[in-house]
Amino acid sequence: MSDTCDAVVVGAGVIGCSVALELARSGRRVVVVDRGPSPGAGTTSASSSIVRFTYSTWTGVAVSWEGKHGWDAWQDHLEAPSGEAVARFVRTGGLLLESPEQDASRVAAHLDRAGVPYERWDAATLRERFPALDVGRYWPPKPVDDDAFWADAEGEVSALWTPDAGHVDDPQQATLDLARAAQRMGAAFRFRSGVVGVERVAGRVTGVRLADGDALSAPVVVNAAGPHAQAVTALAGALDDVTVRARPLRQEVQHVPAPPGFGAEGPVPFVADLDLGTYLRWVPGGGLLVGGTEPECDPLEWLDDADSCHPNPTRAVRTAHLYRAARRIPALTVPEASRGIAGVYDVTDDWIPVYDRTSLDGFYVAAGTSGNQFKNAPVVGRLMAEIVEASERGHDHDVDPVQVVLPRTGLTVDLGHYSRRRSVNRDSSFSVMG
Questions:
Q1: With helix as H, strand as E and coil as C, how does the chain read?
Q2: Distance between CA 180 and CA 26 in Å, rounded?
Q3: 26 with 350: CB under 8 angstroms?
Q4: What is the greatest pairwise CA distance in the chain?
Q5: Residues sharing a CB contact under 8 Å with residue 151, sequence separation 6 or more, in sequence order
Q6: How far apart are CA 433 and CA 293, in angstroms?
């Protein structure tokens, strides 16, 4: 069976659903296909869903600040009916502990330019405002089985405090919110429908073939397939001029009980701790999510095939995450067993996503989004729709990158920042921090 539409979006994660909503708002008949059973059932469901603004690049800061305003007005962004239950943004504030891996002065300059409120906290202020924190400097991060990991601190850390940061309480619900909004605009969804082929005629995409034998004809295809995005672009034969490629990376996040009384006086800030190589996010009800920031001392588990990921947390990664977290929060108990999840990131060479057209006319890519783009979901759909609409009108985005004025903050961003043909961005932190 073959159906016809104006645009196919491959992937029903938070990015794909955001793209579908904005393409539908532009008047296109959109069909979203996903091999999973429901919106956000893949890697999005495992997101720590942190909303922060401490990126290493101007565009990263500007887009995340715009995203925060979208989360603040989530019901309005969705044009959701009054009374519809939607995901909620929880404002906690956030701390970026300063380290050589991410230049805090440069980050602060971007925050100043974007108008993001922040404060510089020295060690004394950290002790006063967040007494649970050990403010010792342990740089560089070390393996926890190295005796040097247990050495005394050499000095003290300072931090950037951003009071408007926080997290979204349910990442899968947020994705469902976007899917429902897209459906209200006429978008259709097909689940358990993997893409096995991309059709093309005379250098232009004409649709996709699905694993169930069906086909979808469309002049526009947007690849937002997460860890499978590179494979889908390969099916399209559109990797020829890509200089920044995305690869699947296995990752883990641990969930442990918070120390007694942690959060009793209100929401607890998240901590991005590149000094030790970890991050921590409070979970209402008495828990902590603990993950890693890809320190150089830890091997990265790149996958040739996203489907080959070992599904369960491993003792080695769990131990590394939790011992580092306990070094920063001494009252944290490392339990014999803990809950956790293992999943797959979709990561580019410089940890900055690709939002772009490709060498195949009509075929677009939103790839390399894992780890630091969930927070931008209210914005990414708009960015991709701007690239699609300009390119379909004949604009050469490669030569003259699309400029977008972000509607809530009024900031202007150059979407060439996300080009597939860019040089690796040396301003990046080369970690989940972006």
A1: CEEECCEEEECCCHHHHHHHHHHHHCCCCEEEEECCCCCCCCHHHHCCCEECCCCCCHHHHHHHHHHHHHHHCHHHHHCCCCCCCCCCEEECCEEEECECCECHHHHHHHHHHHCCCCEEECHHHHHHHCCCCCCECCCCCCCCCCHHHHCCCCCECCEEEECCCEEECCHHHHHHHHHHHHHHCCCEEEECCCEEEEEEECCEEEEEEECCCCEEECCCEEECCHHHHHHHHHHCCCCCCCCCCEEEEEEEEEEEECCCCCCCCCCCCEEEECCCCEEEEEECCCEEEEEECCCCCCCCEECCCHHHCCCCCCHHHHHHHHHHHHHHCCCCCCCCCCEEEEEEEEEECCCCCEEEECCCECEEEEECCCCCCHHHHHHHHHHHHHHHHHHHCCCCCCCCCCEEECCCCCCEEEHHHHCCCCCCCCCCCCCCCC
A2: 16
A3: no
A4: 67
A5: 138
A6: 7
Identify any residues that bridge with 251 across adjacent strands, giving them in sequence order: 343
Q: pLDDT tens across 75-84, in order?
A: 999 999 998 9
CA–CA distance, 342 with 310 (Å, rounded to integer)? 7
**What tokens were used for 14?**
């938070």
Q: What is the CATH number of the domain that holds 270?
A: 3.30.9.10
CA 4 to chain centre: 31
User: What is the length of the chain?
Assistant: 434
Q: pLDDT-based confidence at 2, cuts 50/70/90?
A: confident
* Mean pLDDT value across residues 400-424: 98
Separation between Cα atoms, residue 220 and residue 299, nearest integer Å:
39
Residue 392 in tokens: 């379909």
How many structural domains comprise the chain? 2
* Residue 401 to residues 190, 279, 421, Cα–Cα distance (Å): 32, 34, 12
Per-residue pLDDT tens over the stretch 126-182: 999 999 999 999 999 999 999 999 999 999 999 999 999 999 999 999 999 999 999
User: For the chain, what is the mean pLDDT?
Assistant: 95
Pull the structure tokens for residue 243.
Answer: 């200089």
Do the domain assignments include residue 309? yes
Q: Which of 433, 428, 411, 415 is nearest to 62 (CA)?
A: 411
Residue 128 lies in a domain: yes
In a domain, 237, yes or no: yes
Please state, in angstroms and rounded to a whole number, the distance separating the CA atoms of residues 232 and 340: 29
Q: Which domain holds residue 236?
A: 2-82+170-245+350-418
